[in-house]
Amino acid sequence: MPSDARPKPEVCNCLALREATRHVTQFYDRLLASSGLRTTQFSILIRLRLEGPMTINALAKSLVTDRTTLGRNILPLEREGLIEIVPDSVDRRSKVVRLTEAGAARLRAARAGWTEAQKKFETSFGGRRAAQLRALLHAVTETELDAAPRGAD
Prior knowledge:
With 153 residues, the chain is mainly alpha-helical. The protein contains six helices and three strands, in the order H-H-E-H-H-E-E-H-H.
C-alpha cells in the first residue's frame, strides 16, 4: 500500500471514540466523586438495579466488557458490601452478582452527581445532539463489526 493511501490517525474511528470516551468519563467521574463511585462502578450498580441479579458472564456481556475487566471492577464493590457474589442456584459453577441494600443506597447517593453530569453534558453538547449521539453509539454497539459490509453510509 503506498504511504499516501494509508489511513491517517486523525480519521481513526477507534482513536476518536476512545478520546471522546475518556473525555466524558473524566467529566462524569468528577461529578460522581462525592459518592465514592467511579463511572465504571456506577454503571455496574445501575445495571444490577435495572436488570436484577445476573451471572458474571451475563453482566460482562451486558456492559460490553470482558470478564477479567469486570472482575477487577467488581472487587472493590464487593469489598465495600455494595454487591454480593453468590453461587447460581441453577448452576453452582456460575456466580451471580446482585446489588445489596448498601449498594442501592450508594447508587441513590450517586444519582445527584449523575443527574448533574447528564444535565451539564446536554446543556454543553445539546439535548438533541446528545440523543442522536446515544442512538449512534447504541447502533455501533449492536453492529457486528466482523460481518460483511452493509453498504450504508
